[in-house]
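Researcher: Let's do a round of design. I'm pasting the structure tokens now; please hold your answer until I've finished.
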């Protein structure tokens, strides 16, 4: 038995490694640039399923699943009854990756009957399967005594979209007497958006024990957009429990009822910094002319302690009537939290504010330049590009980052010469610099990034490869193929990831990429 678990431990470590997806699943997700070894051809892996060595069989199952080799499905289904637990587990994970829903019931049965594998292995497989029909086999595990498994069950139910078992989950929740488990039920009911759970969740908030369960109940009330939770959530902003304040503010924002504005506004007068912070978040995020007017009133008063919060609210509510007053206060060195005032002008979105922002950007003041740089980027102020370039040379590292982000937002090709020279002078800032270059949609920008891949400095060529992957410009394919056939092992492997991102193909070796290139 001990040998079996040693094998499983090694197997699951291998599982985690082999299932790192090198292709970004969203447009704004950075590709994972990790070094991996050259992998076996798919034909060899299919043959390995028949190996007498259990480790070889299990390794092959995982890789075939991650490569989405559908021809392996019949054999993988047979391996669900393999005598080796690691092979059964690997086959289940692979079938999950392949979304073979005809295997869902068998895998769900194994989760309950296979005593040699932990339940979370099969739960992982079912999560990958995305088959909501097995929700009724999964949800009873919410009552398991293992807190880690319970959290995985919540994730599984959400991932497979098992909202159909919401009533069963709620029934279990009402029967539960364990406060710790209440947290799990609150999370599940909230994430699945089971609106019928409102009374149960409200009952959890009656116990002010400052536990994760209380915090989870607040958050879940927001997720189900509870109609009767406003008073409870507003009161929570003024209670001592920090996580409770945070989750209550998030819930109020998600519910989005403007009727809470006047009561939340009163919390700005609190002496507790966290209460003021979360109240400000709520007033910024719920669309409300009332919130903007109340905040603007503060900016016209003499009490400056809440000016920063008021400026944020006026800005986020895009209250045009407040622009001139915010500009006036931004120009005064005595104004507290001047960066908030500058950012507010960016949110309001009137380019009439550009002259003031340019002035403050290069003022050398301890507050104001950072927010001004951000706002100029948001406003797309091309006329401010020379000022932002100057800001790069002021010796303020934080301002440099803000200026780079602004230049990226503006995406003016005239900034390229400076960005190119900055890359040569500050290679450690290559990720930020190249990210800015990549946002400029010109051939010259592409060439700057491609040139950076030729660097011998890993701090430069790694982010350069990453930006090529993100841009998805097919004109970079010839360069990437050069690296795929080159002697530098790391650049070769990074090129595979970039090629996958650019082309949508998923090849694992230089030979396969070369064959693809010949066909295209």
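Researcher: That's everything. Go ahead.
Model: Designed sequence:
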């Amino acid at each position: 038995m001990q040998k079996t678990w040693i094998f499983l431990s090694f197997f699951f470590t291998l599982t985690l490694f082999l299932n790192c997806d090198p292709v970004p699943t969203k447009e704004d997700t950075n590709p994972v640039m990790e070094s991996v070894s050259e992998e076996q051809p798919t034909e060899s892996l299919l043959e390995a399923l028949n190996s007498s060595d259990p480790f070889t069989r299990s390794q092959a199952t995982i890789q075939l699943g991650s490569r989405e080799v559908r021809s392996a499905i019949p054999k993988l289904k047979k391996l669900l009854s393999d005598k080796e637990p690691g092979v059964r587990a690997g086959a289940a994970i692979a079938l999950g990756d392949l979304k073979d829903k005809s295997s869902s019931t068998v895998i769900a049965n194994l989760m309950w009957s296979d005593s040699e594998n932990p339940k979370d292995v099969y739960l992982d497989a079912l999560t990958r399967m995305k088959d909501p029909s097995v929700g009724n086999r999964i949800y009873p595990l919410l009552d398991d005594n293992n807190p880690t498994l319970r959290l995985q069950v919540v994730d599984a139910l959400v991932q497979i979209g098992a909202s159909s078992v919401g009533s069963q989950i709620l029934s279990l929740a009402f029967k539960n007497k364990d406060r710790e488990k209440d947290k799990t039920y609150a999370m599940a009911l909230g994430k699945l958006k089971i609106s019928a759970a409102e009374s149960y969740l409200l009952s959890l908030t009656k116990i002010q024990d400052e536990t994760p369960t209380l915090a989870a109940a607040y958050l879940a009330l927001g997720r189900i957009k509870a109609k009767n939770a406003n008073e409870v959530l507003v009161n929570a902003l003024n209670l001592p429990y920090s996580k409770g304040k945070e989750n209550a503010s998030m819930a109020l924002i998600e519910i989005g009822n403007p009727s809470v504005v006047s009561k939340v506004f009163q919390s700005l007068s609190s002496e507790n910094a966290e209460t003021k912070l979360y109240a400000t978040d709520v007033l910024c995020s719920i669309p409300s002319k009332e919130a903007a007017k109340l905040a603007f009133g503060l900016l016209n008063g003499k009490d400056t302690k809440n000016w920063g919060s008021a400026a944020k609210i006026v800005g986020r509510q895009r209250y045009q009537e407040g622009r001139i007053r915010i500009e006036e206060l931004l120009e005064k060195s005595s104004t507290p939290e001047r960066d908030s005032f500058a950012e507010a002008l960016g949110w309001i979105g009137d380019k009439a504010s550009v002259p003031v922002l340019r002035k403050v950007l290069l003022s050398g003041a301890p507050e104001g330049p950072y927010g001004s740089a951000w706002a100029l980027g948001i406003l797309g102020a091309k006329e401010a590009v020379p000022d932002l370039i100057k800001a790069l040379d002021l010796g303020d590292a934080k301002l440099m980052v803000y200026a780079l982000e602004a230049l990226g937002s503006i995406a003016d090709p005239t900034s390229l010469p400076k960005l190119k020279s900055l890359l040569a002078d500050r290679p450690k800032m290559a990720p930020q610099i190249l990210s800015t270059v990549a946002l400029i949609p010109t051939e010259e920008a592409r060439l700057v990034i491609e040139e950076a891949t030729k660097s011998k400095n890993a701090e430069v060529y790694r982010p350069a490869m990453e930006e090529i992957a993100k841009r998805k410009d097919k004109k970079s394919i010839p360069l990437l193929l050069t690296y795929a056939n080159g002697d530098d092992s790391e650049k070769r492997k990074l090129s595979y990831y970039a090629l996958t991102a650019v082309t949508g193909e998923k090849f694992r070796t230089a030979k396969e990429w070369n064959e693809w290139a010949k066909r295209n």
